[in-house]
């Protein structure tokens, strides 16, 4: 069955709470949804989120890549030859991981729809319920403690605390959150590259010495500073999770070679989709690295694909898939829902997306 068309939809939706990290502050999701349509009129969907400060991807750039290169590459080709199509997408352009991820996921979604099975089953799994953490946006200690209590009341028992905006005050922030939620909640930290190596060691050792029981620390130093990442990892006991330092296989190989981190965060929009993400998970497992599947600020489309990957492959730590939970409302119809701290995938073909409503973007993220 041939691919008849590849379409793009620009979407924008507000968040119910501002999302603040050491890299950015945003109040909206700005994203591109790609729709791959077969000759029978079935559609598969994928997503390319705009995240200037992490991937460098923009909606306009991803749309240009899809319309001018990836779409024409696929149109008229056999939709059922999934591995070949995904390989062509990866080889068609340098970089542009978000655009490639959107097309890769749309191809997988379409293949699952054509078989009449959920995407997780196409990937070799059966789990339709995937636990997730929830992020506490960067802020002062008082605000973070209040947010932690609220998220705990909403059923989340793994909290991802954004730090890295002020190393001098980060220990007090962690202490305030731990005091607010008690010992029964897992706390993980994400510095989003915000610390120097020395700051990272000082803060993490302070957390350890205070007995604050932090599960892991994500990307403490600049993405390019693998020597610094390794220096930190060698001097603390808390596991270090590489995120922005690892986009693709070559990055992960270098992290493994330098023993720079204990874990890796695999994100579809960073690595280029489900096809390369599975390679990263396999490579990490082979070399004894822990794994997390994470997300950018995405809708049900991107999060549904990532959750399907976790449902099929599993990870060593709870996934980071709360992004669509932050939406005040969504232009996407169908797909996943949240049940407290669980992503619930629909027992429907593919991602279960019925339609997307194009919404004009009002702001930049």
Automatic annotation (TrEMBL):
UniProt: substrate binding residues: 24, 135, 160, 295, 297, 320, 322
Keywords: Isomerase, Magnesium, Metal-binding
Cofactor note: Binds 1 Mg(2+) ion per subunit.
SMART domains: MR_MLE
Molecular function GO labels: magnesium ion binding; racemase and epimerase activity, acting on amino acids and derivatives
A single GO BP: peptide metabolic process
Family membership noted in the UniProt record: Belongs to the mandelate racemase/muconate lactonizing enzyme family.
Protein name: Dipeptide epimerase
Lineage of origin: Bacteria, Bacillati, Actinomycetota, Actinomycetes, Micromonosporales
């Amino acid at each position: 069955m041939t691919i008849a068309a590849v379409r793009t939809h620009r979407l924008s939706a507000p968040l119910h709470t501002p999302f603040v990290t050491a890299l950015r502050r945003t109040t909206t999701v700005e994203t591109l949804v790609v729709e791959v349509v077969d000759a029978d009129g079935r559609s598969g969907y994928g997503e390319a989120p705009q995240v200037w400060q992490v991937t460098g991807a923009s909606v306009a750039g991803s749309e240009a890549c899809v319309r001018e290169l990836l779409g024409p590459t696929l149109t008229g080709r056999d939709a059922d030859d999934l591995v070949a199509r995904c390989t062509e997408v990866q080889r068609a352009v340098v970089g542009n991981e978000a655009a490639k991820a959107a097309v890769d996921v749309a191809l997988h979604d379409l293949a699952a729809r054509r078989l009449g099975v959920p995407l997780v089953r196409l990937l070799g799994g059966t789990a339709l319920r995937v636990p997730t953490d929830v992020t506490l946006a960067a802020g002062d200690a008082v605000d973070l403690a209040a947010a932690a209590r609220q998220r705990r009341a909403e059923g989340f028992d793994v909290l991802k605390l954004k730090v890295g905006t002020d190393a001098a005050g980060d220990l007090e922030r962690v202490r305030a959150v731990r005091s607010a939620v008690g010992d029964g909640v897992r706390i993980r930290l994400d510095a989003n590259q915000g610390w120097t190596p020395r700051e990272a060691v000082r803060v993490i050792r302070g957390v350890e010495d205070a007995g604050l029981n932090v599960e892991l620390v994500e990307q403490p130093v600049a993405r390019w500073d693998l020597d610094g990442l390794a220096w930190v990892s060698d001097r603390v006991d808390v596991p270090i999770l590489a995120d922005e330092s690892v986009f693709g296989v070559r990055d992960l190989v270098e992290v493994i070679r330098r023993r720079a981190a204990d874990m890796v965060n695999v994100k579809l929009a960073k690595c280029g989709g489900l096809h390369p993400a599975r390679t990263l998970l396999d490579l990490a497992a082979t070399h004894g690295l822990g794994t997390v599947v994470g997300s950018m600020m995405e809708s049900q489309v991107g999060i549904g694909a990532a959750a399907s990957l976790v449902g099929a492959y599993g990870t060593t730590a709870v996934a980071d898939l709360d992004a669509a939970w932050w939406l005040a409302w969504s232009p996407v119809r169908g797909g996943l829902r949240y049940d407290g701290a669980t992503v619930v995938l629909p027992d429907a073909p593919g991602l279960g997306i019925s339609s997307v409503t194009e919404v004009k973007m009002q702001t930049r993220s």
